[in-house]
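The pair is quoted verbatim as follows:
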Amino acid sequence: MHTDKEKSKLLARVRRIKGQVEALERALESESESEKIMHLIAAARGSISGLMGEVLEHHIRHHLADDPTRPGVLKPDAQQTLIDIIHSYVK
C-alpha cells in the first residue's frame, strides 16, 4: 500500500475479520446451532472477499496503470472494467 491512510483502512478491515473469526470460534466451542455457525462463516467469507476486492483494485490502479514505458499494461478504461468485474465477482 502506498499511503498510511490505505494501510490503516486495510488493517481496520483485517481486525474486524479477526473479530468475526473469533466469534465463529466461540460459537463452535459453545456448540451453537448450525444456522448461527453458517451465518458467521458467510459473514467472514464476505468480509474476506471484500478485502480481496480492495487489494486487487489497488493493485490494478497502482501497478497496472497506463505507463508508456511498459507496453501492454491496462489503459484506464480497461482498468475500471476489470475492477468492476472483480467487485461484482467477490460480492
Q: What stands out?
A: Helices lie at 4-29, 34-63, 76-89.
